[in-house]
Amino acid sequence: MQQAAEFQVRDGQLIGVRQIPSPNFNQRPVQTEIQLLVIHNISLPPSQFGGGYIEQFFQNQLDWSVHPYFQTIEGMQVSTHLLILRTGEVLQFVNFNDRAWHAGRSTYLGKKECNDYSIGIELEGSDDLPFATAQYEALVKVTACLQDYYPKIQQHIAGHSDIAPGRKTDPGPYFNWADFRTQLQHYKNTSNSLAG
Ligand SMILES: [Zn+2]
Question: Could you give the C-alpha distances from 140 to 28, 146, 165, in angstroms and in order?
């Protein structure tokens, strides 16, 4: 399927986005197909945006003394494949072929260890504030691109709270799933008709 793509996957990288390598990854189990997209939110400090702290956190370069909240996450080594900032800018921290550390203890459709077989997308946001329109727009384009390249995720998108219920609440009540799915379908229909 040919798409008038803004984004493109090549060698596990999303071409057209800024690459900020995180050391927090390892190999996926042998012959593991990517089959799930997991959507998260994160903000550092919580519900504050900008400042570059998320990027520093995923690179193990966050100065824990800058904010009291940072001391509660001191030493944590986590990552994501993609982060979508409030502006809609997309950053990549881990190659899709590698296993990012975003889901933690988790289960999807009875299958444990979602990090093994998923791609993680963090939205800069929180459980108590709406996401930016630019973030939905970027998420729609990125999701369409990834679904084209990794067909299994066409049917499998989950929130962190879905795969780690009781432990995680993100992307939270302000993430508008219905709107996201409508926009995604509309974008894919439009892209397909453009490509003939
Ligand atoms: Zn999460």
Answer: 25, 10, 25
